[in-house]
Amino acid sequence: MEKENLTPAKFADMLNINRAVISHILNGRNNPSLDVVTKILGDMDYINPEWLINGTGNMYKNGIDPESLPKEPDLFNQREIFSGESKTINKNHEESGSNSPVIDSQQSENKQFEQSTKPAKKITQIIIYYNDNTFERFNPN
Question: 52: domain range?
């Protein structure tokens, strides 16, 4: 998950399995089932099965370049998210040779926007449910 920049939740969602399954595996409560291993190898066909099952050998199959694999964007690798902007920024950054990012500035027009007036929301009722199947209602009036 670390190499793929995946959180446990994103990893579980990617495999279409319950998030609790990944949590139990990571906490040492359960070992991965055959179903989980099969889903990992099916969705991530570049992972070496021997490494996944036995922990031996390389993580990636022979001939697979880990740097060429698409990665989930993270805080430091967000090129996928802002694809339209980052190409321009990164290209200018590489050409300038400086350490500070170069951002194309665009002229903006001053426009006036009317603020929509919606009626203020007011709390009309609060209901508290207790674990003994009872509840209380509160009205602020």
Answer: 1-98
CB atoms within 10 A of CB 43: 12
pLDDT tens digit sequence for 46-81 = 888 998 888 888 888 887 766 666 665 555 554 444
- What is the C-alpha to C-alpha distance for residues 137 and 93, in angstroms, rounded to an integer? 60
pTM over 0.70: no
Q: Phi, psi at residue 126, to the nearest 5°? A: -125, 130
Strand partners, 108: none
Q: How many domains does the chain have?
A: 1
Q: Could you tell me if 124 and 137 are in contact, meaning their C-beta atoms sit under 8 angstroms apart?
A: no
Distance CA 131, CA 133 (A): 5
